[in-house]
Amino acid sequence: MKILVTGGAGFIGSALSETLLNQGHSVIVYDNLLRGNKLSKNAMDNCTFVKGDVRDYDLLLESSKGCDVIFHFAAILGVDIVADNPIETMDVETIGMRNVANAAIENGISKILYASTSGIYGHSAIEQAVDEEIIVDPRTSYAMAKRYNEIYLAALYEEKGINSVSLRFFNVYGPKQDNRMVVPRFFEQATSGKDITVFGDGKQTRDFTYIDDTVKACILLMENMKGNEIYNIANENEGCIGDLAHIIKEITESSSTIAYIDAPKNRYDYEVERRVGSSEKLYKFVNFKPSMKVEEGLREIYKANYGVLQNA
Question: Mind listing the domains of the chain with CATH numbers?
Fold first, then answer.
């Protein structure tokens, strides 16, 4: 197939694009490169690369001609960056989605897969794993815009018949991720001997989902999708941020101190005490759910980014 990936040079987008290329698909990577380029040289040599902003409709329309599928992953990411730029965050999401939808209509593209977020759940369902039927509770500009786009895609299917999937990612991690996210930040601090800084008491939990599992789920959904659906892509394994810091310190054999500090005020709405997702709906549809154990995934990151483990 011919596939357009917006945000295709980013962390998840590059891993997806490279896998699609390896499977023999023709891939157009569309990215503004504001956060660098995580594509390998081989991927750059074999994809069609377009440098552009998803808010540029004419360029997006031209770039998506002849495509069968659009993966719309372009977004502003990182809690601090999003918190400091709420208007631009929402513009990129809402204008970008409208442009992707209109390009799909104009070019006869029947499938859109959209990178949504577990942040949509907000503080809801604290006492259980969240599934797609739970009432959502978006509290940030980022989460609100993601939820808006989920609803937009549902309307697009009803009115225009374009099939779509909203992918609710749960704390994706893996090699090549930058330090806007907690896992690479902890690795960077640990390997440089700096304090590993944990916000709060470290007891807050997240559901860390490895990049390879995430990409596999995305491609299986692309191959089988129909109608308009929302799927969690979650590991179903709840882990404390404080424990994550200890595991990374052990893996790196670091002399760093784990320092517990107050979270900046602009992160308040992003600081959820507990989050774990259910991938049961995903499993029932494509007979797959993420399974990489967190410590194993962290060791894979260390081997990829820093060399062979000394005590593996």
Answer: 2-172+208-233 (3.40.50.720), 175-206+237-275+293-306 (3.90.25.10)
